Each structure stands twice: as structure tokens, then as C-alpha cells.
Amino acid sequence: MSRVFPFISVDDAQAAISLYKQAFTVKEIGTPTYYSEFYDDPSIANKIAHMALSIEGSHLFINDAHEQPDAEQSRFTVNVEVDSKDKVNKAFHALKEDAKKIYYEPTDLGWSDLGFSLKDQFGVIWMVYVVE
Fold first, then answer.
1. Contact 14, 28 (CB under 8 A)
2. Distance separating alpha carbons of residues 117 and 21, to the nearest angstrom
3. Per the CB 3.0–4.6 Å rule, which of 15, 48, 73, 91 could disulfide with 23?
4. What stretch of H or E contains 87?
């Protein structure tokens, strides 16, 4: 079986996971791997090296951006299709807090009755829309 799914690196993965749990239906898959398993450096011992999540039924990997000097994320967008307008609004209200940029608030997109796009506080760009 072949699959494609994003692996995002952020500053403070634990906080990002908490935010995404407020915005979406999220399940942690397995347990996180910490940098302490690879490095003898107490300053990063509790930082996440790898964590698998299921967000609205699709997989996403996340970690703390250790040894990644470019603080700006690559140009990518995480698209999330949800099955109700309520889920779009819930995600927007959680992700908009301290967002770096709101591209557009929940609105009729033409091809979807409701959707939004923003760059969250961790630099991840989200496009969330309803498919009913």
C-alpha cells in the first residue's frame, strides 16, 4: 500500500498537538518518540522527534523542529475536508487564536459551502472546508 501524508516540524510540537485537538477530531497513533532517544542533550530531552496523529481520519506526522535552522515553514498547505459547517467553525475558532495570518475567514468558497484558510501560530497553513 502506498500513502502520502504530511510530516510537519514546528516549534513546540506538544502545544501544536494540543491546539489541533481543540480544532479537529485528533487521535494520537502510538506514543511519541523523544529526542532523548537519539541525543544526550538534556535541553531537548522532552522534545518530540516523531508523533503520528490521525486528524479527521487522515495521518499527519509532527515533531519539534530541532536542528532545522529555517524557522519559516516550506510552502505547503494542510487541507482538511470535514463533513459539517460546525466542524469548519470549530476549527477556525481554535486555529485563529494567535494565528500569524488569516487568508480568509469562514466563507462560501463556491466549490464548498463553507471554508477558511490561515497560517497558525506555528507557521502551518491550513485550508479547512466542508464537503457534505
1. no
2. 18
3. 91
4. helix 85-95
Amino acid at residue number 129: Y
Tens of pLDDT, residue by residue over 60-117, are 999 998 776 666 656 677 989 999 999 999 999 999 999 999 999 999 998 899 999 9
How far is CA 10 from its chain centroid?
Answer: 9
Residue located via cell numbers 466542524 = 87
Torsion region of 102: left, alpha or beta (phi above 0 gives left; psi -120 to 50 gives alpha): beta
34-49 pLDDT tens trace: 999 888 999 999 999 9
Domains of the chain, first to last: 7-66+75-130 (3.10.180.10)
Q: Specify the length of the chain in residues.
A: 132
Cα distance between residue 119 and residue 126, in whole Å: 6
The percent helix, strand, coil of the chain (3-state, each to 5) is: 20, 40, 40
